[in-house]
Design a protein that fits this description.
five-stranded mixed β-sheet, four-stranded mixed β-sheet, 2,3-Dihydroxybiphenyl 1,2-Dioxygenase, domain 1, 3 helices, about 160 residues, single chain, alpha+beta
């Protein structure tokens, strides 16, 4: 449990990550990647257009096609296709401010990397996963791939314990 006090002295307690949301240009294309890569279907799909949503987002009258996909380990990935004019893609380069990556722990980085590429991901390093040779993850293997909408998917194989 993480807690921090506000200037008023009230304690804000964070219990857990609820979900990870990713804005997408095309919900069907994004969903096709995730369902193929994970081998599971979406848990939930709906158009969100209730007035509270526009108020929360600061976009009155917004309509969003939304999908929930269950990730291994209990996390939920929420794909969001906003029905608004003038959507612009963010540059997909990792060092750009605002770029976020999703890291999935995998048993075999090579197998997961090949599956992601087969599902349409574009590897940052075309040679496949790289062995980590320094820092807290020595012996691990990792790879960055670009998936739909320039989103970065990191595959992380922890170091073997044996």
């Amino acid at each position: 449990m993480v807690g921090a006090t506000s200037p008023s002295g009230a304690l804000a307690t964070v219990r857990a990550v609820h979900h990870i949301g990713v804005s997408v240009a095309n919900i069907d294309a994004a969903l096709a990647f995730w369902e193929s890569f994970l081998g599971v279907g979406a848990r939930w799909r709906k158009t969100l257009d209730r007035p509270y949503l526009g108020k929360i987002l600061g976009i009155p009258g917004v309509s969003i096609e939304a999908v929930f996909i269950d990730l291994p380990g209990g996390m939920v990935l929420e794909l969001l296709d906003y029905s608004i004019p003038d959507k612009r893609a963010n540059p997909d380069a990792t060092p750009n401010p605002g770029n976020v990556h999703l890291c999935l722990a995998v048993e075999d980085a090579g197998v997961a990397w090949k599956r992601a590429v087969d599902c349409g991901a574009k590897p940052v390093c075309p040679d496949g996963p790289v062995e980590i040779d320094a820092g807290p993850n020595v012996g691990a293997r990792g790879a960055y791939l670009r998936i739909h909408d320039g989103v970065t998917l990191e595959l992380f194989q922890p170091p073997s314990l044996g």
